[in-house]
Design brief:
By secondary structure, this protein is an alpha+beta fold. The chain starts with 6 loop residues before the first strand and ends with a strand. The strands form 4 sheets. A 6-stranded antiparallel beta sheet has the order 8-13-9-10-11-12, with no helix packed on it. Strands 5-6-7 form a 3-stranded mixed beta sheet, covered by helices on one side. The protein contains 2 helices and 13 strands, in the order ββββαββαβββββββ. The relative contact order is 0.16.
């Protein structure tokens, strides 16, 4: 799913052809396709975490680095001390990789209500309760994330009567996704 697919719908309004509406889906971009992700993930993984997101951009002569980490057990929240520990190790390594010490780095946890931006993030959050906007039912569908790959996600929802329903949703049917925080 390398390129983003767009579906255009045309509708009638007052007997004239109306505007085009673009419908998006959750795109899968392999995390290791981002510059320096692989080197940084090895460092972060060695500290007991996963690198969720890495953005490196030059801004006014300073290299700005934005990184997001999560624990290897995605159902356990990480704190400020965890972020600080990773920051102290990751920043010098990135400065060496980039060949500059003129950097600014912001390192965060995913937060309690993270919007999942890239479908490649789903496997990092297995066991976490999420919700996805399923375009086939035009509504949010929630559950515990049980499986994820480059084509679909599988959610498990426990009903009020105690029964468990498993749903597999194709990425092309997911418009957006986020954590569920109660």
């Amino acid at each position: 799913m390398g390129s983003q697919k767009r579906v255009h719908f045309y509708f009638r309004k007052d007997s004239r052809v109306g505007a085009r509406m673009t419908v998006r889906f959750m795109e899968y971009i392999p995390l290791d396709s981002y510059p320096h992700y692989t080197e940084c993930e090895k460092i972060v993984s060695g500290l007991g975490f996963h690198l969720v997101e890495l953005k490196i951009s030059p801004q006014n002569g300073v290299t700005q680095i934005l990184a997001t980490i999560t624990g290897k057990d995605a159902s356990v929240n990480i704190g400020v001390n965890d972020c600080s520990r990773v920051h102290k190790v990751l920043l010098p390594a990135l400065e060496e990789i980039l060949g500059t010490d003129n950097t600014y780095m912001e390192l965060t946890s995913p937060g309690m209500e993270r919007n999942i931006k890239n479908a490649a993030e789903f496997p990092l959050f297995l066991g976490r309760e999420i919700r996805v906007y399923d375009k086939t039912v035009t509504d949010w569908v929630g559950g515990v994330l049980k499986a994820a790959d480059s084509e679909s996600v599988t959610l498990e929802e426990t009903k009020e009567d105690g029964s468990v329903e498993t749903k597999s949703i194709s990425l092309e049917h997911i418009a957006k996704a986020k954590f569920i925080h109660l």
